[in-house]
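Need tokens for this chain, all 227 residues.
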Amino acid sequence: MTTPTTQALTDTTETATRGRWPWLGVAAGIGALAATLAFDLHPEWDENAPYNADIVDDVSSGKAHASIITGYLTVALLLVLAAAWKRHVEPRTPSSTAARVVPLGFTASAGALSLGYGWKGAMGLYNGGSEDDAFDKTGLYVLYVLNDFGSFIGYLGVTVAAGAVAWMAFGERLVSRWIGVVSVLAVLPVIATVGAFGLPGFPGVVSGVWLVIAFGGLALGKSTINR
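Here are the structure tokens for all 227 residues:
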């Protein structure tokens, strides 16, 4: 008598919460946009003049502090999103390799972004923060150079995940095709900028937008993986 009742409660709970997990991706996307773009540390600078150590005088320690807080929250959300994807999507897609690439991409980005946002926090700590005198201007400039692309490069794993979602849309028909289009549009600029210029940071520009749109679509749409 006890076992069927327990199973029924489990099934009811699973049904009630099944469609909510994509909102984790939306939240991670909002966090990415805030931590990487809204709290970007690049100050205004004469584009015709080369960067030098004096630029650290114009870096906002407040933005750096805000970025590490929102950035670390985003890292946590990406890890929880990866776990939720594995729980909800992989059992429904036993023959899809692409479905297994997606959480690996999120996990890879979370690891890299732990460093990227950590460097931002260090910039705020040592440049106007509580340990303002710990490094001279040359040392701070090294931190600034690390921050130039530090919180942008780490989103490459999310770009790989977007590519996998695109394959799931067009190759396997597990995801709505319009989400596949959005995913392709997130991947192509990264390929173009890396191939043409060697520019490594474009994943950080597009990943937040992709997470918000794609996972909002999964939450509200009719993709097979979330029905």
